[in-house]
Amino acid sequence: MIRIAIIGAGRIGQIHAANLVQNVNAEVVYISDVIESAAVSLASRCSATVVSVDHLMNDASVDAVVIASSTDTHADLVEQAAAAGKSIFCEKPLDLSSERAAACISVAEKHGVLLSIGFNRRHDPSFSRLKNEIDAGTIGNVEVVSITSRDPSPPPVEYLKRSGGLFRDMMIHDFDMGRWLLGEEPNQVFAIGSVMSDPRIKAAADIDTAIAILKTASGRMCQITNSRRCDYGYDQRIEVFGSKGMVRADNQTKTKVEVASASGFATEPALPFFLERYANAYRIQLDKFLRVVSGENLELPGGPDGLRALQLADAAQQSLETGLPVKA
Amino acid sequence: MIRIAIIGAGRIGQIHAANLVQNVNAEVVYISDVIESAAVSLASRCSATVVSVDHLMNDASVDAVVIASSTDTHADLVEQAAAAGKSIFCEKPLDLSSERAAACISVAEKHGVLLSIGFNRRHDPSFSRLKNEIDAGTIGNVEVVSITSRDPSPPPVEYLKRSGGLFRDMMIHDFDMGRWLLGEEPNQVFAIGSVMSDPRIKAAADIDTAIAILKTASGRMCQITNSRRCDYGYDQRIEVFGSKGMVRADNQTKTKVEVASASGFATEPALPFFLERYANAYRIQLDKFLRVVSGENLELPGGPDGLRALQLADAAQQSLETGLPVKA
Amino acid sequence: MIRIAIIGAGRIGQIHAANLVQNVNAEVVYISDVIESAAVSLASRCSATVVSVDHLMNDASVDAVVIASSTDTHADLVEQAAAAGKSIFCEKPLDLSSERAAACISVAEKHGVLLSIGFNRRHDPSFSRLKNEIDAGTIGNVEVVSITSRDPSPPPVEYLKRSGGLFRDMMIHDFDMGRWLLGEEPNQVFAIGSVMSDPRIKAAADIDTAIAILKTASGRMCQITNSRRCDYGYDQRIEVFGSKGMVRADNQTKTKVEVASASGFATEPALPFFLERYANAYRIQLDKFLRVVSGENLELPGGPDGLRALQLADAAQQSLETGLPVKA
Amino acid sequence: MIRIAIIGAGRIGQIHAANLVQNVNAEVVYISDVIESAAVSLASRCSATVVSVDHLMNDASVDAVVIASSTDTHADLVEQAAAAGKSIFCEKPLDLSSERAAACISVAEKHGVLLSIGFNRRHDPSFSRLKNEIDAGTIGNVEVVSITSRDPSPPPVEYLKRSGGLFRDMMIHDFDMGRWLLGEEPNQVFAIGSVMSDPRIKAAADIDTAIAILKTASGRMCQITNSRRCDYGYDQRIEVFGSKGMVRADNQTKTKVEVASASGFATEPALPFFLERYANAYRIQLDKFLRVVSGENLELPGGPDGLRALQLADAAQQSLETGLPVKA
Question: Which of D197, D225, D325 sits opposite A144 (nearest CB)?
Fold first, then answer.
């Protein structure tokens, strides 16, 4: 039984808590949050105790920490947990600064602890099957990866102002998927973007619609398109084209019902947002983390993956600002 | 070049004429119809001559006749054409009476002429691929054939009164498909039916909705469902289940466009009716007929197929009337 | 918190236990099974106590019993639980004898207890959406219900010998779905069947492939096809055709991945069997049962639904044996 | 009846000839080709006469010319036909040089003749329905156009050497579709490319795989991906994302047959190449051309559309060579 402390009792912390409670290998012992009431409420559902961060870090019986607090606290908490010898699961991004993220990865490495980043999409059954098919040679050599990723509606402008911008906040997931599926490191990024949905996003110096293209040294390519607003649900599709064929993962729906009428055949919208679309991915992600903590040898996205995705996001942001392709 | 006379210048005669005009192996030389103006109009589009039935039967240069006149004339015309030594393509059914149909087949056989029946669906690319997959062993032994066949809207009640009833007029196509795909002769029919769309159909002693199930001696089964009214287009689907898998042919649409909106994903209705759905089948059907006339050895539905489908329709009608299964 | 005793610690009892453990409104207090070790194993996973049936029936603190033992014990246990005033969830069928089932329903009614039958498919999100669309008038009046239900592979012949036959053991689920979706009571059944997969099934006087058609007084129809063996997964599809359109629920798969190669586009098989296909339905089913126990007013399949499905299965069996349609 | 001369009796000339022969408003009177035998063969199928280019240009009874000869002859022939007052249908591109193309458009304008360019895809029923849905406001404002276009296999290297490169020879169709569907003029192009399929393509200084992204002044974007080799058929898909939804056109297949087996569900590859995929588009294209010649007012891609697509291709080529985005 792995004893776990969760830092952050917000939406994502609650998802992780619910998955940990149902996992027979885990016991949630501590919850910590800057908002006391949030911590209390979540702790009661987990039969856990509310404590301070220092308390849980200093309790030697805690095996692992799940960091789901606000982004600006991630790097410090990772370093503190590393120093305390805990296995670490940290939500993305490690930090909005690549330098800070790199420093914190070094600390984790120095202490020899497991540091896994919450790139939940790698654990989605459809997307991990894409990866498996590629690795099995089903489509030959990867040539072009195409990622479509559209949120149902923009977050509040206040959130956007602190988010680091679309590339670091939203497309960072897609940069990770692109790297992972390309099977080679991109070394160039070109990005364009616009504001289409809400002029306040422009006022916040951000964009809501973007395309980025990546290229690797050997010539593999990746195109990513993002939108902050999508009427037909949470649009999450990936296609990988190769020398012997293609694999693609389409959107998911709640039911398989089709309605036929004089106007044609109608199916329901895509699942509404990440909580529904990636419910399985969140569960599998933590299960794998626990299994690695228990000694199993499984691939998990680690600190360097988090850093590299951030560097690609930085490069995309720079490309947007300069209008030029950027080495990454 | 095969010289052809067309008897019947109505809707179906016009389809055959258009396909023959574009076929490089055929020359339409004569058109005959009881309605003079219809014959003249069609003849002008084919660069053909309007003549009487006797004239075209007596012209030794005519190689083949296409019989597309009203059902009650089919049997007599087949016999006349057989006596004249013509190759014969006759629309279904040969006759509404199985006895009359059988007699007319005997005449054709006695004269040794080709007699092919217009079961156009056997030539549909999707349905003939079903047959090819079955013959290739893709699904192992055929076990259950399921046929869904729904017209967009009922014909005029006046037409229904002379039609012989739903089983002989509409489901006869499906009985032929069932026999063909089962690969064994059904020997029992049970049928139920209702009037759902229009009470005048009941007044005409007919039905508009029906299910029939067929069984062969070895235990293979076929279920057929028909409706005379269908809001989402001409519903034409077949599924064949076997010991190693299943093959099915879905409806067809004009385009492959999908529209996504807040209410979900929408595609267009099925093609509206048989002219659109079986346009290719009609063309291929006559092309195959011409090739057989030219000496090629191809499978074509013949007189006995027409008779057998009629006998199954008779059995279904008897089952509906008696409420009991009927040997066929 | 509803205190629950589970009778039967086999496969289906374990599913119910797992769902109850995760339900915040339920507490599994007792497990009983004729096989002691099975009871002990399941109890340990639920933090429950192993007791005899009499013990749990006599414990007034038990609110509800879940009966998941072998079919021949259902009726007696329902009567015992009814007499003890428990709310009852009983797996289908109540009994293989309609008379016995009817008697046991009377007992439950006399004691005024809730008796719900485990027709899990009514709770499947896709099938319950079909029902909702029908009730909302989306397809107008229901005319023809078509149900395709195929198991991946036959159960052991020993099981089949005690099962009551395909109609009572397997198609009983589809009879329930047919009644439910028709919205009217069928009053006639005709059924045909064969042995296609394994001659030992014939030796056991059972069949493995069948079609049944039902008809209501107003003329609505339902066709059901079953097979005990299906190569492409657990085939569970329903289509409802009505006066204004059609709704259908297709099979479900684990992922939405499609592989394109020179041979075409390939998607994965249907989910393997009922544990996977109806995982959500099992969860929702017990959740609804608990909510009704708690006083909510929700539609649940009850004793009379179980009896009526059994009567239709009896009629189908009689039709198979006599070769005639049977009033039901 | 419009009297037409066809210049070029190769593959594309033959397609146009076949469509014209079946068009009731057209009469093919002359065929001209530098290869005498090709001209003779095609003329015999059209009941036309083989003549020189000068002859057909000087025959005042010729209403229209269809230019389907090699690319390097297009501009001269357009100018000659314009001077002769003929209506002109010219295959794309007008010329590999934008300057030459512009000059030749000026000549056509000066003579006031109709000049239509063979962008057949605008006439594809699926793609023209995309355009109609956009124009009808179905998806609100267009934001991102995504075009996937992959040929089944590369042309001979000898052809590539004279082709002007992938952007001018292949992606030019997609540039035209992008402009048409964006509804605004792109003013910037960025393109990347690689050689993936055959090193001889590299030796010929060309690429076989590419991504280009376009942007308009208002911020609309278009991403295009091309490959010269695709295992699963001729991959031709377009998706248009807008402020209120999305429309997309998927690939087309010959039949709607699906095969189910233990490995899943399989459908056939996409149609093999442009002859099959765009058969309807070629027919509709010439039919519309003829109707415009007859005085109808229909939208047809004209000389400036050809020139603009060529300028975008030039910009993409320059972007590939410089590694920088290019104003266009």
Answer: D225
Contacts of B139 in chain D (CB under 8 A): 259, 261
Q: Please, what are the domains in chain A?
A: 2-117 (3.40.50.720), 121-327 (3.30.360.10)
pTM, two decimal places: 0.96
DSSP calls for C265-310: EEEPPPPSSHHHHTHHHHHHHHHHHHHHHTT------BHHHHHHHH
The one-letter amino acid code at C148 reads: T
**Closest CB from A232, A260, A263 relative to B265:** A232
Cβ-based neighbours of A237, under 8 Å, separated by 6 or more: A147, A148, A149, A248, A249, A250, A251
Q: Residues of D numbered 285-314 whose beta carbons fall under 8 angstroms of chain A's beta carbons: which are they?
A: none
Distance between CA atoms of C154 and C148, rounded to whole angstroms?
A: 16
* pLDDT at B133 (0 to 100): 98
Contact C211 B229 (CB under 8 A): no
Percent pLDDT > 70 in chain D is: 100
Distance CA D78, CA D65 (A): 9
Say how far apart CA B321 and CA B191 lie, in whole Å. 9
Instruction: Tell me the average pLDDT of chain D.
Output: 97
Residue of A nearest to B269 (CA): A264
Q: Which residue of A has its CA nearest to C243?
A: A261
Give tens-digit pLDDT for D199-254: 999 999 999 999 999 999 999 999 999 999 999 999 999 999 999 999 999 999 99
**Is the pLDDT assigned to residue B291 strictly greater than 90?**
yes
Mean pLDDT of B34-58: 96
C311: its two tokens? 């009567």
* D125 burial type by CB count under 10 A (0-12 exposed, 13-18 middle, 19+ buried): middle
The DSSP code for D272 is S
pLDDT of C17 > 90? The answer is yes
Question: Do residue A260 and residue C249 have CB atoms under 8 angstroms apart?
Answer: no
Give the span between the Cα atoms of B278 and B284, in whole angstroms: 10
Query: Which residue, among C123, C256, C265, C284, would best test binding to A if mutated, counting the most A CBs under 10 Å from its CB?
Result: C256
Report the first-to-last Cα separation within chain A, whole angstroms.
42
Task: Please name the residue that has the structure tokens 């259950």.
Answer: B144
Distance CA D80, CA D104 (A): 10
**What residues 100-159 of chain D have any CB closer than 8 A to a CB of chain A?**
141, 143-144, 146, 148, 150
Residue A24 scores a pLDDT above 90:
no
The answer for residues whose C-beta is within 8 angstroms of residue C221's C-beta and 6 or more apart is B192, B194, B209, B211, B225, C143, C144, C145, C213, C214, C215
**Nearest residue on chain A to B235, alpha-carbon basis:** A260
B contacts of D249 (beta carbons < 8 Å): 255-258
Which candidate in D129, D133, D151, D194 is best for mutational testing of the A interface (most A CBs within 10 A)?
D194
Cβ distance D209 to A144 less than 8 Å, yes or no, reads: yes
Mean per-residue pLDDT for C130-146? 98
